[in-house]
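I'm stuck. Please check this protein.
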Amino acid sequence: MSQLIGNTPLFELVCTPQKSRVLLKLEQFNPTGSAKIRMAQSMIKAAEQDNRLQEHGTIVESTSGNTGQGLALLALERGYDFVAVVDNHSCKDKLNSMRAMNAQMCFVSNQDDDSLATSARENHAEELGKQHGWVFMKQHDNVANSMGYYPAADEILNDLGESPTHIISAVGTGGSLFGVTERLHQLGHRPTIIGVEPEGSIAFGAPGHDYWQSGTGTPEGAVIGTSVRYDLLDYGAKVSDKAAFAACRTIGKHMGLLLGGSAGGAVIAALELLPGFPAGSTSLTMVCDGGEKYLDTVFNDEWMSERGLLDVALEDKIWEQVMSLRAGESPISLNSTRVSWSKEK
């Protein structure tokens, strides 16, 4: 399956009469349905090359699901065991997928606790690695994380024939956004880089609080990893769970394209920021995964309502924004994106 990694398609979400556009790189077309398999492959190869990972070895990693799915698949292919340290905040389908690929699951929270436990997961994964001599991948501080996304930058250039003018993408570990950026810089391109995280994440400014967007941001109490490259970042923006999920549901309802929650946050930021960009600009978002993994959460009215996240009026406004941009009309004021970090500060 690993030979199918990469060469994911670009999808044009919006193009204005002034030829400014928003493109989505649909990483759900990778094996395991996520961009994270790129960095899983890169981290495993790096561990093999420096002899940390040897024949019949065991990999351990803290994961909210997508990284774990990638590691589970590649461990199978390469003859390793894989231990996934998880919490019950993770999407159930992701957990079941890892089990189906023979991963050993280690929970840091009980079944009734669906809160995000990133710090506890990472601490336990590191402890297991030391205790058993397993290879802890430590994705947030692993240089091979970002390097795994270099091919994605090459694909973007090949498909567009030029560099995007803006990249607006979610920031979790930071690997996808800053890996693509590093590679573009190596090739002489300098797009404007805008990172997007959930309200409640601390990478672009406190205070932190709980949030529901999965696999993105840095929760309060967790350490911001070295893969988050502020030196490569121009702006950091925050988007609420309600707005991010409304964007996912809007695109799904009107276009039949299901996006994961982290991509929803980046999409709504792109839709709000696009009117301020020059004519002819090309903004690109890395879509980490598809919405098929979130049918029981983001796309489930009951789950959304129970958590106060369902906002049909906002969904309608987002679609009005899309149609206004396409028609060249005055954009709708969504007030959903807050720029909280800037290199200019």
The chain has two domains: 2-31+149-340, 36-142.
